[in-house]
Amino acid sequence: MRNLFLKALAAALLSVSFSSSSLAQSDIAPVPTSSVETYGAWKLQCSHIAQKVKEKEGDKKAGKKAAKKVAKDTVRTVCEVVQPYSNRKTGNEIARLVFAKNTDGKKGVRAILRTLVDLSFKNQPVLMDDKAELAKGEFQNCAGQFCYITFTIDKEARKKIAAAKALNFQFPLARGNNIKIQAEEAGLSDALNALESK
Asked: Edge-to-edge strand order for the sheet containing 178-182?
């Protein structure tokens, strides 16, 4: 009888320890896979990617042999400022303008325009403030339903884009005419500042 009682008590204590462990683990907030911040008409979208990075550990004084590469868990964050544009009649997206950090190690941002594949490659796309040209685009590639155009944004263009009053972009269509899409400027300056701080 006494053995049965001890076994029941042990089982109860084991159950309590498991539940306590579960509570402790649930207190640790996991890193979100994505986040969105709104700045006027623009959204700052960030993806948080868990990855392992190998870093050297060891006593440098003891020589190279003592240093070992150890895999450490880190989170890589990739952010972009986004504004999509849709056909008023169908509601289908026809273009998307994105600002992202430069990937070549340089400070600053670049702009990427994603459009439908119905393009002409004879003339360069342009990013404008009303009728003033801010940057010229270069066709990168087409995949699936979309083509991608990159705009190099230097310091001067970055200032003009943030202060633009009639920001728009224009690109040629395969049927011969140019399409002009007016962007919403509200919040863009704050969104770009937030992007660069990430």
From this structure: 34-39, 42-57, 68-86, 93-101, 109-116, 146-152, 132-143, 126-129, 167-172, 178-182
Q: DSSP code of 65?
A: G
Question: What is the C-alpha to C-alpha distance for residues 52 and 78, in angstroms, rounded to an integer?
Answer: 16
Residue 64 lies in a domain: no
Element (H, E) at 180: strand 178-182
Domain count, the chain: 1
Q: Evaluate whether residue 21 is within a structural domain.
A: no
Domain containing residue 123: 34-48+78-197
| Residue that the structure tokens 């979309």 belong to | 146
* CATH number of the CATH domain containing 166: 2.60.40.1880
Q: CA end-to-end span of the chain, whole Å?
A: 65
Task: Look at residue 31 and give its three-state secondary structure.
Answer: coil
Q: Find out whether 187 and 42 touch, Cβ atoms under 8 Å.
A: yes
Q: How many residues does the chain have?
A: 198
Rounded CA-CA distance 178/198 in Å is: 36
Q: pLDDT, tens digit, for every residue of 141-161?
A: 998 889 999 998 988 999 999
Q: For residue 112, is pLDDT > 60? A: yes
**pTM of the predicted protein model:** 0.71
